[in-house]
Write a structure and sequence with these properties.
With 126 residues, the protein is of the alpha+beta class. The chain has 5 helices and 3 strands; from the N terminus they run H-H-E-H-H-E-H-E.
């Protein structure tokens, strides 16, 4: 059997249905005693990147999506969570949706989201 180039293999994968590709991945895992962390991503255009393990997210962003009815309370909470002054915190709340905290730990993001929700704001953790 002739050795196939990477482009030839990718061409073969492009012609497969998702079911065929899924069966191939299972057979590949069994044959070589490995697991594909993102098996669906193998079908995507990324190619080699799909073989890398998907890392668990450890940094989160807390995004204020809407201030709600109690805008003053939300501004106070934003000031507590950040080192912003009154004007900057007010501008952030008025300009929603805006990130309040960026690249923080999961626990800190959850606490901040709860505090903002408690003040009446709509919050999203990404």
């Amino acid at each position: 059997m002739a050795k196939l180039s990477q482009d030839d293999l990718l061409g073969q994968f492009e012609d497969m249905t998702l079911i065929e590709l899924s069966e191939f991945v299972k057979a590949f895992e069994e044959k070589f005693d490995v697991t594909a962390a993102a098996a669906v991503a193998v079908a995507g255009p990324a190619g080699p990147a799909a073989a890398e393990a998907v890392e668990e997210q450890d940094e989160f962003d807390v995004v204020l999506t809407a201030a709600g009815d109690k805008k003053i309370q939300v501004i106070k909470v934003v000031r507590e969570l950040t080192s912003l002054g009154l004007k900057e915190a007010k501008d952030l709340v008025d300009g929603a949706p805006k990130p309040v905290l960026e690249k923080v730990a999961k626990e800190a993001a959850e606490k901040a989201a709860e505090a903002l929700k408690g003040a009446g704001a709509s919050v999203e953790v990404k």
